[in-house]
Amino acid sequence: MEAQDIMTRNVVTTTPEKTVSEVAGLMLERHISAVPVIDPEGKLVGIVSEGDLVRRPEIAGERRASWWLTLISDQAERARDYVKTHGRSVAEIMTRNVVTVSETTPISEIAHLLEDRRIKRVPVTREGKVVGVVSRADLLRALAVREMPPSEAASRKDDRAILAELRKLLHDQGWDSHLLNVVVEDNVVHLWGLVESDEMRQALTLAVQNIAGVRQVETHFTKPPVWA
After folding, report:
1. DSSP letters of the chain?
2. Mean pLDDT of the chain
3. Which of 32, 64, 172, 227 is the most buried (most CB within 10 A)?
């Protein structure tokens, strides 16, 4: 499997001029933990994650650097840290040197990358533009699918053909939400995502069952959290 087989494609993004409060609200609204930052040409210029927000004084309180940390860090480094924790715009707090992969990067390579860099997700880019995101959760889904016993290969439709047909169907129906993830392995379609109603779950399952070549549909739906 490659990044293009498991990545989340409908990526929520933001822009450098947005405020910190706006990007925090966006992450809460869309139930996501990180947002790629793009410029007016659509090129990736940074990323903002939960980690960039939880260190802010509004949440963690104002902290003074210890005397020994002051001794071993230079003034420029402390200044950069202050801007990152007190900045008001996305441009000021975002991580700029973003680790990325391509659509054809093997998932084994992505797994090593996430572990080595101690990051939770990686944007997938094509000519500098974000076309998807692979997270740890996406890798776990792929692992869960691969662990299942293979079936007979006779008259089996290509998994990528099924995936392409399914994505088109979801798009045509207006169901291609960023909250829905799809993995196809051995002609078995696995659906993950936040789906609000029983009717929507039934419609999604039926739509997949009607695609030629699909042997089975495995749903792993959850309901969105109810906020007080």
Report:
1. -BHHHH-B-S---B-TTSBHHHHHHHHHHHT-SEEEEE-TTSBEEEEEEHHHHHTSHHHH---PPPHHHHHHS-HHHHHHHHHHHH-SBHHHHSB-S---B-TT-BHHHHHHHHHHHT-SEEEEEETTEEEEEEEHHHHHHHHHHHTSPP---TTPPPHHHHHHHHHHHHHHTT---TTEEEEEETTEEEEEEE---HHHHHHHHHHHHTSTT--EEEEEEEPPP---
2. 82
3. 32
